[in-house]
Design brief:
The protein folds into two domains: 8-67, Winged helix-like DNA-binding domain superfamily/Winged helix DNA-binding domain (Arc Repressor Mutant, subunit A, Orthogonal Bundle), CATH 1.10.10.10; 70-118. It is elongated and about 45 Å long. Helix 2 packs across helix 3 (40-52). The protein has a three-stranded antiparallel β-sheet. 68% of the residues lie in helices and 8% in strands. Strand 2 and strand 3 (62-65) form a beta hairpin. The chain is built from six helices and three strands; from the N terminus they run αβααββααα. The longest helix is centred in the middle third of the chain and has 17 residues, at 69-85. By secondary structure, the protein is mostly helical.
């Protein structure tokens, strides 16, 4: 994937595609008009940009993803940790935990993920 970064509007539009795919490009433009009050041309411009980045494809007027939402956000998170914390997940968690008190449930979920990675 060429470019992982998206602005807020692009991310919301991408989520709309992932949540509704496969979807006709015309129907996608109608959804974007209802949700964001975008003109058809705006929707098609943003769709074209996202297709050029390798996230989606628009073949014969049907829009589908080339990468899942989960895979995109996993790659995006990895890139963020790499660029911001030198690739250190413990440094990221320490920084995150220093500003926000984690609930017992969140701590248990994180511990479960760590345990599954050990196995």
């Amino acid at each position: 994937m060429r470019e992982l970064r998206m602005g807020t509007a692009e991310a919301k539009f991408a989520d709309m595609i992932w949540d509704n795919e496969p979807i006709a490009s015309g129907d996608l433009a109608k959804l974007a008009n209802n949700e964001f009050e975008w003109k058809k041309t705006t929707s098609f411009t943003v769709l074209k940009r996202l297709c050029e980045r390798g996230l989606f494809q628009n073949q014969k007027g049907i829009v589908t993803s080339l990468i899942s939402k989960e895979e995109f956000y996993a790659r995006h998170s990895e890139l963020y940790v790499e660029e911001t914390f030198g690739g250190s997940l413990p440094a990221f968690l320490a920084a995150f935990g220093s500003r926000k008190k984690l609930s017992k449930k969140e701590i248990d979920e994180i511990q479960s993920i760590i345990d599954s990675m050990r196995g």
